[in-house]
Write a structure and sequence with these properties.
about 325 residues, alpha/beta, Rossmann fold, 2 domains, four-stranded parallel sheet, 10 strands, about 40% helix, binds pyridoxal-5'-phosphate
Length: about 325
Amino acid sequence: MQGLNGIEKIALGIFPTPLHPLKRLSDLLGIDLWIKRDDLTGVALGGNKVRKLEYLLAEARQQGAQLVFTTGGAQSNHAMLTAACAGKLGMKAVLILKKRGVTERKGNLVLNHLMGTEVRFMDTDDYGDIYAEMDRVGTASGVPYYKIPCGGSNALGTLGYVDCAREISMQGETFDHLVCAEGSGGTMAGLALGAGLYLGNTLVHGMMVDREPFDRITPRLMGEAAALLGKKPEVSGKDFHLLDVCGPGYAIPSHEGNEALRMMAENEGIFLDPVYTGKAFGGLVKMVREGIIPKGARVLFLHSGGAGGLFALDAES
Ligand SMILES: *Cc1c(COP(=O)(O)O)cnc(C)c1O
């Protein structure tokens, strides 16, 4: 099937995902708050990586890959979804994960185990080491292989979120603000680029849950994805807004994030996750309290998934 600009893509998820108002939270916050349910993308426990994988695995299949490598932290939602989607296509995934965070069989590692996915841990903080290991293992396997970067955040993967912006525009609602988590950058970059193309005046806010230079990563990915679409890769700093919601560190729950997670669960019966969407929603609440998002504004929150991470939490958090 053809995606944006005729670029090959494979249908993996169930789209469009629901878009609906959050009545009680709107009243509590004094804004017109809606949610885009990319926690319901239809593969595994849902999540944003499915949209990226529709493009990435299409390229893998075109190249005849039998093995698909990817990486992330021990509890990576992206790695788990890569395994799930690769399995649907009859490809085998090998996950080379950083030996950081919860490495016992909890959360997403349970799901990887249930799918029979090959998981290897590497004791390194450098993704360069991991990509080199992928080449070693891939070459030794003797079959064609395909490497997907951390979070699926390259130009091709970013197109999945340009698609999402287009999908929102076709759902017939308009928003002043769109808020999403930013972890490796592709989701935010795709939405920011897509907002410019399809959503008129919607300002996209990236809630940074990691300490990477997203002020450079975001426009770079936007430019590279725009080039794939045959558009001018010119991005200005006014095209998006970033906020640091990382707290104590990547994949370490924050007080604000956990509070926001509980607020969403109590009032709307929707579960966010402690690593990405809880912190992102905490950022939304903060922007409303500080007037960055004014009262009465129409605001869309992207629920990007992460349910697996809930079950890797310590009981106290
Ligand atoms: C990966 C992920 C994100 C962040 O998306 P990026 O494109 O990596 O920035 C947000 N939420 C969840 C649940 C994720 O798994």
